[in-house]
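I hope you will forgive my troubling you with a question about protein structure. The matter concerns a single protein, recorded as an amino acid sequence and a row of backbone structure tokens. Please examine both parts with care and let me know of anything in them that strikes you as inconsistent. Here, with my thanks, is the record as I have it:
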Amino acid sequence: MLNTETDEPARMPTDDLPEETQPASKMAKPGRKRRIVAAVAGLALLAGAAAVGTTLPDPTSSEAYAALAGEKASVESERDSAKSSYESMKSKYDTLQNGITDREAKVTARETEVGKADAAVKTAEAAVKVREDAVTGAEKTKAANTIGDGTWTVGKDIEAGTYRAAADVGSSCYWGIYATGSNGSNIIENDLPGGGRPTVALNSGQDFKSTQCGKWEKQ
């Protein structure tokens, strides 16, 4: 049916139509109501859960918690005791270590002193050795330049030079100088000094004979 004023089909009233034929906008209202009811139910559940949560027991008041707390306190006590024992032992160790260090320092100082003393002794021994060597050398030289009773060839048995009696001679002393190889037949010089400390000059190519005159030393 057309609307004579607008030439558009005339709209029929919808209120009298059956529910199945009602527009979609009016059909949606019961669905919104159901969603609102579900939301309210959810909020109620959340509120109930919160209420239940506030009534849970305190875990710190349980026996297990108390037992763990006791074990923790025991372990901490053992730790503190061990720490105290360690500190005491460390203090004793440090004291001993310091004592050892002091003794080692003293030992080192003594060793240094001993080393200096040893060096001084070695120096003295070396000096004594030098003097002994000098005395020995002088004695050897003196011995080599000292002759007694007997017949000596100058330049072979004894060195040429001036010789003197080491001590006063007696009245029985006799000395003689001969030409070498003459067997005492070629007398160059001789004497019976009878006392004192006689002196003789000997040259190569001569023989020297001494009888009961003691030692003669080269001058």
